[in-house]
UniProtKB/TrEMBL annotation:
It is an enzyme of class 5 (isomerase). InterPro entries: DExx_box_DNA_helicase_dom_sf (IPR013986), DNA_helicase_UvrD-like_C (IPR014017), DNA_helicase_UvrD/REP (IPR000212), P-loop_NTPase (IPR027417), UvrD-like_ATP-bd (IPR014016). GO terms for molecular function: 3'-5' DNA helicase activity; ATP binding; ATP hydrolysis activity; DNA binding. Pfam families: PcrA_UvrD_tudor, UvrD-helicase, UvrD_C. This is DNA 3'-5' helicase. It catalyses: ATP + H2O = ADP + phosphate + H(+); Couples ATP hydrolysis with the unwinding of duplex DNA by translocating in the 3'-5' direction.
Amino acid sequence: MSALISELNPEQLEAVTLPHQSALVLAGAGSGKTRVLTTRIAYLIQSGQVSPHGILAVTFTNKAAKEMLVRIASMLPIDTRGMWVGTFHGLCNRMLRAHHQDAGLPQAFQILDSADQLAVIKRLLKALGADDEKFPPRQVQWFINNAKEEGLRASQVETYDDFARKMVEFYRFYEQQCNKEGVVDFAELLLRSYELLTRNEHLREHYRGRFDHVLVDEFQDTNRLQYKWLKLLAGNRAAVFAVGDDDQSIYAFRGANTGNMKDFEKDFRISKIIKLEQNYRSHGNILDAANTLIRNNSGRLGKNLWTSEGHGEPIRVYNAPTDFDEASFIVEEVKSLRAEGVVLSQIALLYRSNAQSRVLEHALFNASLPYRVYGGMRFFERQEIKHALAYLRLIANPEDDNALLRIINFPVRGIGMRSVEQLQDEAGRQGGSLWAAMGHKYRGDAAFGPNSGDKAQVRLESKPWLDKPKKGVEGFVALIESMRQVCEKLPLPEVVEHMLEHSRLAAYYRAEREGADRLENLNELINAATSFVHEAEDDSLTAFLSHASLEAGEHQAGGGQEALQLMTVHSAKGLEFHSVFLSGLEEGLFPHDNSRNEVGGVEEERRLMYVAVTRARRRLYLSFAQSRMLHGQTRYNIPSRFLHEIPDSLLKWLQPVQKVAIRNEDWGTGRKGSGRVIHEPGHGVPARPADIRDSAASQWRIGQNVTHARFGAGVIVNCEGHGADSRVEVRFGRTGTKWLLLEYAKLTPA
Ligand code: ATP
Ligand code: MG
């Protein structure tokens, strides 16, 4: 026991050893909140006050949950698998799986991630004939999620005008569609679990009796529904131990609510708020910078951090002529840090927006520095992985329309758009799934037997509207059914392997000229399944699919090796590194353009900046570029106001490197000059093939020949952006190179 608590300071010790009562620890970055929370769990178990079974702990990311379990396991010789430690989504998923019938869900219900959800909404709007200029799918998505996070069903949303009434109508159709397909989105996990506990007294009492201690990390970022869920679950008996920092509240835009802290004090009769003020993470200069910066915000609960460590090194500031120069500066510094003995995984490159990572990635790639990108494009969101998951989803539940649409003709099997539309019409008429419309009234596992392929044929023959694509559809149905049969008997990793071969996905990418990366990712999926089977209590295919929807992308190719850590500031929350590079400190980028017109927007950006600065233990680099190419345009920005808010005495300005860091050979068509390269549209950085990784851009690859109605024949030489922002650079024979927005360009493969 003493080993557990011997290093704690008196305030930390008090928090760890509090008796069975609710408590709020309110403290700044790096003061040991997470450590206190983890140690308290170990302490409670070791001192016999609670069994692992009686603990529920909520963390913000899966990564944090995993780390927490590892830390507890290292402190205590117990099996942590029975403990409920996870994110809100993860825990709700666990509850809904256990009580799917009470929750009105099929056993193998699937989880839609945000992109899947958008796809369902788009499909729905199209089917309803909605004008997508008036009702942009993203706005509908936002409306639905917002309502759910407020705890409201379509029937409960109040409307005051036609527009809102229309939105509610879409919400209602969306609800019906999801119920029909047996799928739930992220917000639904929480709402349904909340409704389940509200409605079902028996279950509510069961969980209230079970969880003696409920512990919540990053409490400042819980939204309203999450708070209500916690309150419902805790009842009057459980002790809720919440730790948080109002200065690090960075999800207000998503409904997180520091008002929850005030309510918490009241609802849980908190008599004393524990404050921790000693920072164990950063050297003095870094801490001073963070403290001074955040003082510019109003309405803080107020606290200051101090450290017993020295001032340490000054904060290094670099003024780069261009974003490319900024990237090569970072590369050089990383190399010298490494030469000083700092391991790469202890170095983080942070940025405000995902779009900034591309230039950094390119420079790192050229310098052969291994790196790993967190967030952004998550492993499970890559195109090839999505295809593979769609097959797995169909194996788990063939009535998943979303999955079916994704791969019904991928790899190509002669089922064209027209046939798919006919199928959709037929499904609409029957009011069932696409699978059912194919002539297969799927009735659970019993529905398919050794002869189901034959049955399929018989039924298909009686569908005149399917005559033409019959062969393709027949083949597809038989393929999925045979996979379902074979996979019943195989362990999960072999299911994945079998699927990859028999779907011909592996063969497809093997044959692709630039498919090596994608193939590697597909192999990584087998590895992910293998480690899932080792780690998870429930190693079923359904459990694996939920994991894929919920997990934050820890399984990445190359993830095992020592690598630089690249991520947005949002995803760096709670983490720490020896050295941190924060790039793109420009007005418009950080603080972000969007924030400037919103009430409290800049203050939220400042809290984000506070989070970024406090990730660094020993060394912090801040940099900005005078010109930057983003979304195919060169922007000229002034340095961020946040830079000016840090006292000059803490900063050391570095001189721009004089050498020509960027040469034509390195950067494609960048203009040669005095070390300053202006990148204009049409003079972008050549993207690596792996950069085309989202679905909008998925059918295009670098090197592909294309035709444009006005510009004629050309070849794709570059690409960037995601989703609706996806662009390609095409070199046309007649007119030279042009950047084109894929959404509008109407390119056709030549
Ligand atoms: P954040 O707000 O960024 O999430 P935090 O308050 O959760 O920060 P921790 O991550 O728990 O802070 O702790 C920061 C660092 O300080 C960790 O490396 C932790 O191990 C260390 N630390 C915390 N308390 C002590 C202590 N009493 N003695 C030594 N190191 C400590
Ligand atoms: Mg923490």
